[in-house]
Design goal:
Layout (H helix, E strand, L loop, with lengths): L9 H55 L3 E6 L2 E4 L2 H10 L10 E7 L5 E11 L2 E8 L1 H46 L6 H26 L7 E5 H4 L9 E3 L1 H5 L1 E5 H17 L5 E8 L8 E8 L6 H4 L17 H11 L3 E4 L12 E8 L1 H8 L1
Parallel strand pairs: 7-9
Antiparallel strand pairs: 1-2, 1-5, 3-4, 4-5, 6-8, 8-12, 9-10, 10-12, 11-12
Length: 374
């Protein structure tokens, strides 16, 4: 036995121990990795369910949209929601949009009906989404509304005309009856005068209506200083114009503008005012443009009744017992035809007299524009 060598087991024992330790660590790491994978898989499943729910909700929203939504990939356009399918069913095709991302197109469909579509194209990674709104019914309803508004305006105008003319006609009929029954009465001359007065009243109403309704007759367009424009109006009522305002040159139609200014001062006088004041408000009124001037015309009368202030420029709206109610309506329309504007001042200005106040915007004469731009 002396020839056999003893074997040292220490190295093998150490290797075995290392193996067992490494195996244990691997098993622990694998278990941790598996647990992490299970957790990730669960989170992924939850996110997939949320994504599917979101997609389903989006589909429901798209389906309920009143807008027609199409998906465009290359030359192929396919409907996404019910509104898009209705467009294809009724119109027969997808309307051809032109121009930029937003456009309006009117086409005749396969059923022979004309339709108006408003469209918008939104680019996507794989093509585009096309949103279409059929505005045919809306346009038809707007057109019908405008027609009804016109009819309503005509009805109001007819009532106003009937009301204004009926009173003098009743007077004419009454005095004519008196003349017929008692032709030898000593008051025949008086009654005849009343008939003539009523006739002139009817003629005045008809003339005012024609001036308001028909296109303006050709009138000389001139450039005058504001002080010159008010010379005729000042015959009705004294007009105070500050020096700077009076020198401003504006363009207007000689007859109509003088008539408008005279109407304003005459209205003030008949309302009880003793004078008017004119002052410059601002150059370049926002409502008209940079080549204009706005002046304020105020008086020391009782002012405008608040109950009619909002309708003061409507036909047959007025506060005078004798009057057609067309004066301010005519004035506003005449100034508008000259490229200006006439408005009732919304509040009293520091330089205004305490009564009624109007804002009148007129175009500056060429030399006045140059001076202001210098």
């Amino acid at each position: 036995m002396s020839g056999l060598h003893e074997v040292d087991d220490a190295p093998w024992t150490e290797l075995l121990s290392r193996y067992e330790t490494t195996a244990t660590r691997l098993e622990s790491a694998y278990a941790e990795l598996r647990s992490h994978a299970v957790r990730i898989e669960g989170e992924l499943a939850d996110k997939n369910r949320l994504l599917a729910a979101s997609v389903e909700e989006m589909d429901r929203v798209l389906e309920a949209l009143p807008l027609a939504v199409f998906r465009q990939r290359g030359a192929v356009i396919s409907p996404i929601n019910a509104a898009a399918r209705i467009v294809l069913a009724t119109h027969g095709r997808v309307p051809a949009l032109h121009g930029g991302p937003e456009s309006v197109v009117t086409e005749i469909g396969v059923d022979g009906k004309s339709r108006c579509f408003e469209g918008r194209t939104v680019p996507t990674d794989d093509g585009a989404l096309v949103f279409l709104e059929d505005r045919t019914r809306q346009i038809a309803m707007e057109s019908e509304l405008r027609r009804l508004e016109r009819l309503g305006g005509l009805a109001e105008l007819a009532l106003g005309i009937a009301h204004e003319i009926r009173n003098p006609l009743n007077g004419l009929a009454g005095f004519a009856s008196l003349l017929h029954r008692t032709p030898e009465s000593p008051r025949v001359s008086e009654w005849a005068g009343k008939i003539a007065e009523g006739s002139r009243r009817v003629e005045s109403i008809v003339r005012d209506l024609l001036d308001f309704a028909r296109p303006e007759r050709a009138a000389e367009t001139v450039a005058l200083q504001i002080a010159e424009w008010f010379e005729v109006a000042a015959r009705e009522l004294p007009v105070d114009i500050d020096a700077e305002t009076g020198l401003v040159r504006v363009v207007g139609s000689r007859g109509p503008l003088e008539q408008v200014l005279s109407n304003l001062t005459r209205n003030s006088k008949e309302a009880g005012a003793t004078r008017c004041r004119v002052c410059k408000l601002v150059h370049g009124a926002e409502s008209v443009g940079a080549e204009s001037v706005t002046i304020r015309i105020s008086d020391d009368g009782p002012g405008i009744d608040p109950t009619v202030a909002g309708r003061i420029f409507d036909p047959f709206v007025g506060t005078k017992e004798r009057g057609s109610g067309l004066g301010l309506a005519f004035a506003a329309r005449a100034i508008e035809r000259m490229g200006g504007a006439l408005r009732l001042a919304s509040e009293q200005g520091a330089a205004d007299l305490p009564g009624a106040a109007f804002e009148l915007t007129l175009r500056l004469a060429h030399d006045a524009r140059t001076e202001n731009g210098a």
